[in-house]
Amino acid sequence: MSTAPSPSAPDTTRPAPAPQPLVRQPVVRRRRSSWIALGVAVICVCGGAGGWLYTVTSHREPVVAVARDVPMGAELKAEDLIEAQIATDPALKPVPAADLTKLIGKRTTVGLSRGSLLTRSSVTDEPLVKAGEQLVGVSLASSRLPASRLSPGQTVKVIHTPKESATGAAGDDKTAGQTLQATVIEVGGADNSGDRVVDLAVSQLDGIRLATWAASGEVSLVIVPVGG
To answer: Which residues contact 163 (CB under 8 A, 6 or more apart)?
Structure first.
């Protein structure tokens, strides 16, 4: 006698979920877009900076320059100055070339070197011999002058150096070694013996004293350092 097959148990296993399609994250696209924008900004900034630099450096203006060395206190001549072209720079304040002729005859307040730019503070209209001063010419042997070149406007110290007597002493002159301060106005050329005449500006009180020393040939000069 055959038996009927028993019914199988129901399948309770859930079917596997269907695979979901991959979705691109918008974050990646936003990052890429931001990098592109940054690159464009950098290019724009660099281009603008380059254009500004070209504009600044390419603009040149005519100014006054020094054609040859000029000592302090000298009067400027036409051959001392030339016109030069320089790039505009706010840090530089040279005299415009249009004012070149106005500088002729002015006196320098400092020594000027060839090729340097001239500024307004480098020249003055004030005379070297000021009010209340006297101008005294002194003839000096080379042994009584410093080896360094004297320039107009330079401050010097005048020393009374009496000549030695027959006994080898400086005599009984109590003024020996006395000093006074003076300003060099002009230095003459050397004569056949090597002596030079130096015009010195001194106070009225010292004018007669210096003239007396100079008449006896009893003067020596010492350069006073700047600030001394």
So the answer is: 170, 171, 216, 217, 218
Ramachandran quadrant class, 73 (left: phi over 0; alpha: psi -120 to 50; beta: rest): left
Q: What is the DSSP string of 49-60?
A: HHHHHHHHHH-E
What distance in Å separates the CA atoms of residue 226 and residue 216, rounded to the nearest whole number?
30
State the pTM of this model: 0.56
Query: What DSSP line would sit under 122-142, residue for residue?
Result: GEE-S-SS-TTEEEEEEEE-G
Q: What is the pLDDT along the chain (228 residues), one digit of tens a residue?
A: 555 555 555 555 566 666 666 555 555 455 566 666 666 667 766 655 555 555 555 567 899 999 999 888 888 999 999 999 888 777 778 899 999 999 999 988 888 999 999 998 889 888 888 889 999 999 999 889 888 888 888 899 999 998 765 444 555 567 788 999 999 988 888 888 889 999 999 999 999 999 999 998 999 999 887 665
Give the residue among 123, 127, 143 at the shortest CA–CA distance from 135.
127
Per-residue exposure over 44-56, b if at least 16 CB sit within 10 Å of its own CB, e if not: eeeeeeeeeeeee
